[in-house]
Write a structure and sequence with these properties.
The structure is a homodimer. By secondary structure, the first copy, chain A, is α/β, with parallel strands linked by helices. The first copy, chain A, is built from 5 helices and 11 strands. Chain A has a 6-stranded mixed β-sheet with strand order 5-4-8-9-10-11, sandwiched between helices. In chain A, strands 1-2 form a two-stranded antiparallel sheet. A two-stranded antiparallel ribbon of chain A has the order 6-7. In chain A, a hairpin with a 5-residue loop joins strand 10 (172-181) and strand 11.
Amino acid sequence: MQLLKEYIKKYGSVREGNVLKVDSFLNHCMDIRLFCEMGKEFFRLFGDDNITKILTVEASGIGIACIAAQYFDVPVIFAKKSESKNLDGEIYSCAVRSFTKNRVYDIRVSKKYLNEGDRVLIIDDMLAVGNALCGLIDICGQAGAAVAGAGIAIEKGFQGGGDALRRKGVRVESLAVIDSMDTDGTIVFRED
Amino acid sequence: MQLLKEYIKKYGSVREGNVLKVDSFLNHCMDIRLFCEMGKEFFRLFGDDNITKILTVEASGIGIACIAAQYFDVPVIFAKKSESKNLDGEIYSCAVRSFTKNRVYDIRVSKKYLNEGDRVLIIDDMLAVGNALCGLIDICGQAGAAVAGAGIAIEKGFQGGGDALRRKGVRVESLAVIDSMDTDGTIVFRED
């Protein structure tokens, strides 16, 4: 998606440890005009797939998922990362290792909101090694729900998570795939 | 807001410890049609206030804030609750006690995204004793930004946080204010 690539080139920066900082428009300060264009693009890609639910994980995926959901006219469920009084009863859960935070946490979804009849579009802001996405797919499996695919804003292709899932048959559609990047500012995108 | 009150009556439930469960439409599974109506209502209330940024805190506030931001055509900043590689550099922070999770955490906003020229609308899903909202107001104060007001989906009026802030001169607009509720299912709304 050309617009997103332009944002990454213009406003993104590369830090040590394979960190791509896009917090000025994607995951801290959120550019809602861009989010609307991303939402429309996800709908162009998955609009014919009879999606019944959009699934994401807190926190950075929620905004993109909610904006996209308007075009699909379906609810959004966000997997929670910690226990709270708001999430009691029967849950699906899966352990996930965070790349950015370097720790393992559980993601949880109430059994009430995901079930066999669902066709799920998973949406997230970033895909690197793919741990969060694998966790969300695992939760859909526990629910017996079909995964129609994953819509990702930025995939760090060189970390392999997206291609590993594609080899397993998961439809992963990333709006910008970065094949290489360097702290000197070089960012090379995969051809569409 | 009549539609939100109907959702609370129909789908909400009251649990021990002043917990209102609204996770079927507000803060786990998110009803995006409802969110759009709430966003329009926030724009009706604050649309003439020259808002430049919407500020919320992860995670449950993000969806409502992003949907509302479309009507205001401004970016959304979400305060982060924990340290990560994505939030380096200079930050504003404030310690907040969570009512639902019963612990103290820091909320953090990068200094890059909030400053003196801003007029901020704070949006959140729930207001009880008001700790998160006070923390967000404190962060705006650190930035020298003006707080135009707070747009809240559900205020638990009997816990006093909203009225305490109104007495201090903060414009708090809650789409549904609950004056009392009981585990037998009774929910009494404040008159508009």
